[in-house]
Every structure is written in C-alpha cells, then in structure tokens.
Write a structure and sequence with these properties.
alpha+beta; 21% helix; 32% strand
Amino acid sequence: MRAHLGDQLVIESPATGAARRDGEIVGLHHEDGTPPYDVRWSDTDEVTLVFPGPDAHVRHLDHGPPGTDTSDAEPASGSAPLAGAPNPGDVGRRVAVERRRHGLSRGETARRARMSPDYLAHLEEHPADPTVATLIRLADALGTTVTALRGAGIDTPPGQGHALLHPHLRDLTPKECRALLSTHGVGRIAVTTPDGRPAIIPVNYEIVDDDIVFRTAPGSAAAAAVGTDAAFEVDHMDDASSQGWSVLAVGPASAVTETAAVRRLVQHAHTAPWAGGKREMWVAIRPVRLTGRRITPADGQAATGH
C-alpha cells in the first residue's frame, strides 16, 4: 500500500464492503508513501497515526510518484466527492490566492487551519478534493467562506442564498463606510453616457488620500463621470451566511492630470485595470456623502471578514 498527501484512507466493513470510516492522509512517515499515515478522520476531525489493516484501502487522487500502486484506487461506497466539486486544482489555487492576499505564509496558514504545512503545500500545488471539514478550517483561517474556496456560483450574482430568518438591517456611520472602502477592490460607478443614457460601470479602484480613484480610457463610458457629481457603490454579499453590506459614495469626479499626482497614483496601484488595454486616464471622486447599510442576524452577531 502506498499513498500521497491528500489521498483518502477508507476503512471497509469486512462483511459488506461498505465504507465504515474515511479520512484524509495529512502526514507521511516514509518517502515512498508506505504506512503508517497521519489521518484526519472525517467523522471526528481528529488526526491519528494509522497502520492500515486488511480492511483498509487508499483512494488515490490523480497524481504521480511516489508509488505506482493504483490497484486500490476504486472509490468506496459513500466516499464519492460532493456534487458540483470544482475542477482539479481550483480549490488549491483559490486557497493560495487568499493566503497571499492576506500576506500569510504556508506555515502560519497551516497553523491557523490546524493542518500539516506539507498537506497545505500539496493542496496548493496538486489536484485535490479536500473534505468539507478541511475547507471549513481553511475558510476560517483565511477569513473567507467554503463557497468562495470551492468557486460555487462564480457565474451567478450574489444574493441567491436563503434569507436570514430574523435579519437586522442597520445604517453604517461615515467612519464605518470609509473603513469598508479603505483598501481596494471592484466597485460600480453610475454615469450618464454622452448619448444621454444611464450606465453602471464596474471598475477596480484604489483609495488615495480619501479619494476614490480608478483608471479608464478617454472617451469611455466611465470617463463620462468627469465634471459631474458621480455615484460610486461597492458591496459584499456572503451567500453562505446570508449577510452583507453596501456603501454608496457621492461626490464630484475629476480627471487627474498633474504629472506628479499621476506618478503617485501609479505607484499606489495594486493591480492593472481588469478590463485590460491602454487605460492611462485617472479619475478621482472626492466623496462628500457616504452612506451604507449592513445586514446581520437580529441577535446582534456581526458579520466577519469584511
């Protein structure tokens, strides 16, 4: 018997062949993948050292050496992956992106998620289908949700989750609104285009000296905001917990043309415009009115991670 990090160890009933217990292999003690293994059991979330007996087999993931033993790779009854599981590698890529976004090392992330750093490295670098318990720990460690890590609903708008049984909707203070706007991300600007039609344009933005700034191209729909009182909105919705917030900023929009100011904005930029192309026109919105609302459970528990 040989295994890799991330493989599933399945214990079967000698009488029926049905899976009685299963868990992720999160630690190897031999480089060739032979037993014993550190196994995190799916039913208890505990890690134990296991010397597999004759009633155990390894359900392999699709990866190469160590080991070429695939004779026990058939999935056991009751151990199939969740319906709608992402393509191989997608979860690991999302975990790596979130970890780097928070400036966390693999070691620190593994400590927070109570898992082996070697297993986290395997998860980020190889196809894997971690258990729900593992995803819950990772989501908690990274301040995100299992839904986000699995990429569920990536092509559907947020807000399709179940509404809270007892929701509480409260107004945000200007200070809270500024805090939610304070870094960078994607927001929406409402403009009237040159042909007189209203439009809402998504842009990735930065906050510099309390101004909301973004890059666009001269003559674009977003550039029509210059010289007007613009409305800019940003929000976050968590379908998994049915919570979220939204912030609306209103203020005059102007083009940034002074060379030193443009150079400073370029230096502060976290990302290039997602829309691509040559977008070198900087637009700044100076908020004169900030309003927002947050929806949480009525028992007063605040949403986390925002």
